[in-house]
Amino acid sequence: MPDFTARLEAEIPALRRYARALLRDRDRADDLVQDCLERAIVKRGTWRRPGNLRAWLFTIMHNLHANQMRSLSRQPASVSLDQAPEQSTSARQVETVAANEVLSALAQLDETQREVLVLVAVEQLRYREVAAVLDLPLGTVMSRLGRARERLRQAMNGDAPEPKASLRRVK
Amino acid sequence: MTAGPQEISEQDLQAYVDGWLDPARLAAVEAYLAEHPDEAARLAAYRRQNEALRGAFAEPRGEDVPERLLLAARRRSPGRPLAWLARAAAALALVAVGFGAGWGLRGGLETSGLARGDGAFLVQQAAAAHRVFSVEVRHPVEVRAEEAHLVAWLSKRVGVPLKAPDLSGHGFRLVGGRLLPAAEGTAAQLMYEDEAGRRVTAYMTANTSGGETAFRFAEDRGLAAFYWLEGPLGYALVGALTRAELIALAKSVYRQLEL
Predict the structure, then answer these.
(1) Rounded CA gap, A57 and B229, in Å?
(2) In terms of domains, do A50 and A98 share one?
(3) B190-225 tens-digit pLDDT
(4) Which of A6, A137, B83, B137 has its Cβ near the most Cβ atoms within 10 Å?
C-alpha cells in the first residue's frame, strides 16, 4: 500500500506536534510518534479511505498516550508528566519568547483541556473530529475548549487563574 | 444579554475564532461583536492564542524528521524497535521483529545479519517453559525465593552470573526459580507473581553464539515476550500481559542487569 505509506509519512510532522503537546519531552514525544506509526500500520485495515487520516492517527495516538499514562500511574516510583520538572527551554527547542510564553501557559492547563485546544487551534480539526478523536460528546469538547481558552488567556495575562472565572458564560 | 431572533451561542463564537462558523451566521455574529466590545476583545485574544500556538508548534526550521520515524512509517509489517532502548542501550543495533507471526516464523522480517535463529529459539524455549510451569499451583518453582542460595545456585549451573531483578515496583514479587535443560547446557527460570496471581517468568541461558540482538518482542497465543542476547546472556521475559505492561517490566529488568 504505497499510497498509505506516503500519506503516513506526510503526517509525521503533525503527529510530532500533537505528541509534543501531550509530552513536553521531545524524545518521549518522538517515542509516542513511533508507537503511533507502528500501531497505524497494524491497524491500517480499519482506516476508511475517504476519512481524515490525520484525525484517525490522532485517535490512535491519544489512546496510546492514555494507556501509557495509566500504566505509569500504577508505578508509584515514577512521576506523572504533569508533575515532572519543567523541561528546559532548550529541550523544547523553542526559538522565540512568544512561543515560550504560550507553551508555558499551555502547560498550566490540565491535559484534557490542552489536547482539545491543540487539536482545534494547531491542527485545525473540526469540533466533531476532535470529539471523535477523543471519544467525547461534542458538548464536552466545546466546554473544554472554552475553559482552555479562558484559562490560557488568564495565564498569558499573568493572572492567577480564578476558579470561578472559567465558568462565565455568555449569552 | 438580549437574545434576538438569531441568538448567538458560545459555540458560534468559538467557531468564529476558528473559522468554522456557518457563513449564514457570520453577519449576526459580527453584529453581536460590534455591540459587545468585551466579547470582541475576548475573541481577538483567542485568535492570537491560535496564532501563537501554531507558531510555537511549527516545526523548527532545518529540523528533519528523525530517521527512526521515517523507518517506522515505511515499515510494511509491524515492527518494534523500542525507542527507550535506544537510550538505555545505544550500543545495541535495533532490530525490528514482527509479532503475530508466531515464535518461529520469521520470514520476511528484518534481522540484518544477526544470528537469526538464536533469539527465536531462545524465546520458543522460554515460552514453552512458561506454559509448563506458570500454571503450577503447588510446585511452580524448584527453589523458593526465600532460600538465599537460589541465585548463586542458578548462576553456577548456568555458568553465567545471574541476578533476580526486583519487580516489586510493578507489583510482581519473586516466587522462586528452577533449572531447565537448554539447547546447549542449562537454563534458569525465575518466576514472579502479582497480587492477582498473574505470573511472569524470566528465562536465562548462556549466550553461546556470542551474537547480540536488540530487544525483540513476540506474541503467541496469549503470551507476550521480550527477549534479547547480550554479552554472556540470552534473556527472555514472558507473561500473559499486555505489551505495555511487559515493556515496563523488561525495562526494569534491563536496567537492573546493567547495574
Answers:
(1) 34
(2) no
(3) 999 999 899 999 999 988 776 666 677 788 788 888
(4) B83
